[in-house]
Design a protein that fits this description.
Elements: H1 12-16, H2 20-48, H3 50-70, H4 74-86, H5 90-101, H6 104-135, H7 140-159, H8 173-196, H9 201-223, H10 231-234, H11 237-265, H12 278-306, H13 308-328, H14 333-359, H15 367-395, E1 397-400, E2 403-406, H16 408-430
Antiparallel strand pairs: 1-2
Helix pairs in contact: 2-3, 2-4, 2-5, 2-8, 2-15, 3-4, 3-5, 3-7, 5-6, 5-15, 6-12, 6-14, 8-9, 8-15, 11-12, 11-14, 11-15, 11-16, 12-13, 12-14, 13-14, 13-16, 14-15, 15-16
């Protein structure tokens, strides 16, 4: 859902007969809604059943895909893409369901496999989308999305058992609204700051407003009987440090996702571009997602033997090593292929470790909301990376063919930022403390996660 329109992003104004500013929302709205709704979906899953909420989200995803498939105007397209974004709340619910239904000895490998699908979907989605848009009507992309969503719905309905662990209670509507407004403001400013100008009123108003709303939201949540996000649990050392590491790893992941596609597609005559088409570049980048998938059984075995914390440290160190090579080597196509694949290995290890660390530090009845918050932290890291790297590349340009393109120095600085983020993630991971559960929670913590 995130990469499906990237191959035709520049053509959307013509395809939808709208301004470039309006069509940019077709991309942005999915990321915003997904980030905002992920923790909300997690809490709803804890309260009313993870399977039930996942089915609702998948139905909304299918509805959004069908709406986008049958429209050629920007307004309904934005609505459809927003509904697709709501479907992203299935991710933390799926990970939380694993804890409810699997024995502890299988939990680590299962979490690693499900986490790996995050990278696999993006890695496979880009070349598939490029191929479809090059050979067929672009609306076919959304019919494919609808088919995948329908298949997922049917499999969830037939395979996943009905949730038995539910907290019930009244949903914190005020907390959900506050989180949506606060996060929406901050993420909107971050995602649009480079386009609007970081010092512009358009950027500063939602940024400052969002921060103020989040501060009030935190105050309110601390005093609410059944909060959307349990701030006290979220500020436990193990949970807080893991979430901070998640932001850094999300940044490290997306820095390469911004740099490498552009570097691969720039003309060779620039002196540093590699001259590939979008489809060719997609195939060079695809093995990274497949590496994440291949690492999932390995990550599970490593987690059982050494624990989740060393796994996260190792993943961050592998990513940092890859960026270190990228910074100091004159990159060729095969370099990018290997470096990006190794980054995928590191991400696979890290993404397997983080949910396990979270679930080892929170009560069983809060796994949905806790995983939702952790998924949000990863999304926050990728959003910050997209904004920061885009700003760096926009401010470091050279003229080619009458237009400005990112310079070699801009790419170097961006890769250096990815390196720094990976190192920060590794350092934070080293200091993640051993979870200290309350006596009533000990029975709900899976073996091998502490």
């Amino acid at each position: 859902m995130q990469t499906i329109l990237l191959p035709i992003q520049a053509q959307l104004p013509t395809l939808l007969d709208a301004s470039r500013g309006d069509t940019a929302w077709v991309i942005t709205i999915t990321l915003l809604v997904g980030a905002i709704f992920t923790p909300i979906a997690g809490k709803l899953g804890d309260m009313f059943g993870k399977r039930r909420i996942a089915l609702v989200l998948l139905a909304l995803l299918v509805a959004g895909s069908v709406l986008a498939a049958v429209t050629a105007t920007v307004g309904p397209m934005i609505v459809g893409r927003g509904l697709q974004g709501m479907g992203m709340g299935v991710i933390p619910l799926g990970i939380a369901i694993l804890r409810d239904v699997l024995p502890p000895k299988r939990l680590g490998s299962a979490i690693a496999l499900v986490s790996a699908t995050l990278g696999v979907g993006g890695a496979l989605g880009l070349p598939i989308s490029a191929f479809v848009t090059a050979n067929y009507n672009w609306h076919l992309l959304f019919w494919v999305s609808a088919a995948i969503g329908t298949l997922s719905f049917v499999l969830f309905l037939l395979v996943i058992p009905v949730s038995t662990m539910r907290t019930g209670g009244r949903f914190d509507g005020v907390g959900a609204l506050g989180l949506a407004l606060g996060l929406g403001g901050v993420l909107l400013a971050v995602s649009k700051g480079n386009e609007w100008g970081w010092n512009s009123v358009q950027t500063l108003v939602p940024l400052i407003g969002g921060i103020l709303v989040l501060a009030l939201w935190g105050w309110y949540e601390l005093r609410h009987e059944n909060p959307l996000v349990d701030i006290r649990v979220s500020t436990r050392g193990a949970v807080l440090m893991t979430n901070l590491a998640s932001i850094a790893m999300g940044f490290a992941l997306f820095a390469s996702s911004v740099v490498f596609p552009q570097l691969l597609q720039l003309p060779e005559k620039t002196g540093y571009g590699l001259g590939l088409s979008l489809l060719q570049a997609s195939f060079v980048l695809m093995p990274s997602g497949l590496a994440m998938l291949a690492m999932s059984p390995v990550a599970g075995r490593l987690e059982r033997r050494f624990g989740a914390k060393p796994l996260l440290v190792a993943g961050a160190a592998i990513i940092a090593s890859s960026y270190l090579v990228a910074v100091f080597v004159d990159l060729e196509i095969w370099h990018v292929l290997i470096i990006n694949t190794v980054i995928g290995v590191g991400i696979g290890l890290g993404y397997a470790a983080m949910p396990t660390l979270i679930m080892g530090a929170v009560p069983a009845h809060e796994t949905g909301s806790a995983n939702g918050l952790n998924t949000l932290m990863r999304s926050l890291g990728t959003s910050i990376a997209a904004a920061v790297v885009a700003t760096v590349l926009a401010q470091s340009t050279v003229q080619y063919g009458g237009s400005a393109v990112p310079s070699a120095d801009g790419f170097q600085v961006s890769l250096g930022l990815g390196l720094a983020a990976a190192l920060v993630c590794a350092v934070i991971a080293v200091f993640i403390p051993k979870p200290k559960a309350h006596p009533a929670e000990h029975a709900s913590i899976p073996e091998g996660t502490i």
